[in-house]
């Protein structure tokens, strides 16, 4: 286990989420699946309690802690994409599997975790500053899934 690991609270389906992430994103795996050694407030002995997994190289733990806490946009995974094809692939995997679209490249998966599917061209335009950053930002503000060609066009002016 890594020294610093992100712990994500799930109701009862941390293993399903971890397996979905591992199947969707490169450099993602499912490690140990730890079962409860005894009954606990929201589960029974033998239920999946903790799942160790990696999402795009980031070590995580999924804790099946019950319904007490929900995910919010205060935490999100940001996935940098190289082109429209990669952007579409991740966006469609998340939204098409019971997730939902949001704005400006954000979406939620079916477990309520937020994702930013961010083409590098957008990050580069915003980092450049000046007029091209403003044009790219204004274009992004009208989008749900990021349109790479529209960002490139806005960047050029």
Describe this structure in words.
The longest helix has 12 residues, at 84-95. Strand 6 and strand 7 (106-108) form a beta hairpin. The mean pLDDT is 96. The strands form 2 sheets. Strands 1-4-3-2 form a 4-stranded mixed beta sheet. A 4-stranded mixed beta sheet has the order 5-8-7-6. Helix 3 crosses helix 4 (130-140) and helix 4 packs antiparallel against helix 5. It folds into 2 domains: 1-69, 2,3-Dihydroxybiphenyl 1,2-Dioxygenase, domain 1, CATH 3.10.180.10; 70-156, 2,3-Dihydroxybiphenyl 1,2-Dioxygenase, domain 1 (Roll). The termini are far apart. With 157 residues, it is α/β, with parallel strands linked by helices. It is built from 5 helices and 8 strands; from the N terminus they run βαββββαβββααα.
Write a compact overview of the structure shown:
This is Glyoxalase superfamily enzyme, possibly 3-demethylubiquinone-9 3-methyltransferase. The protein contains 5 helices and 8 strands.
CA radius of gyration is 18 Å
CATH superfamily of the largest domain: 2,3-Dihydroxybiphenyl 1,2-Dioxygenase, domain 1
Q: Structural class from helices and strands?
A: alpha/beta
Number of helix segments?
5
The major pleated sheet works out as: 4 strands, mixed
Order of helices and strands: EHEEEEHEEEHHH
Q: What's the number of structural domains?
A: 2
Instruction: Report the span from N to C terminus.
Output: 48 Å
Could you name the CATH class of the largest domain? Alpha Beta
Protein name: Glyoxalase superfamily enzyme, possibly 3-demethylubiquinone-9 3-methyltransferase
Keywords: Methyltransferase, Transferase, Ubiquinone
InterPro entries: 3_dmu_93_MTrfase (IPR009725), Glyas_Bleomycin-R_OHBP_Dase (IPR029068), PhnB-like (IPR028973)
GO molecular function, one term: methyltransferase activity
């Amino acid at each position: 286990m890594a020294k610093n690991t992100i712990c994500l609270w799930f109701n009862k389906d941390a293993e399903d989420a971890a397996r979905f992430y591992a199947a969707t994103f490169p450099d993602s795996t499912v490690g140990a699946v730890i079962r409860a050694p005894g009954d606990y407030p929201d589960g029974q002995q033998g239920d999946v309690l903790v799942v160790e997994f990696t999402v795009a190289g980031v070590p995580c733990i999924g804790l099946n802690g019950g319904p007490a806490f929900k995910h919010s946009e205060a935490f999100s995974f940001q996935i940098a994409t190289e082109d429209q094809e990669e952007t579409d692939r991740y966006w469609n995997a998340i939204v098409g599997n019971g997730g939902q679209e949001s704005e400006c490249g954000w979406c939620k998966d079916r477990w309520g975790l937020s994702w930013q599917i961010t083409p590098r061209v957008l990050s580069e335009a915003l980092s450049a500053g000046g007029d091209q950053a403003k044009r790219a930002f204004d274009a992004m503000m009208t989008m749900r899934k990021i349109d790479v060609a529209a960002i490139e066009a806005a960047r050029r002016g």
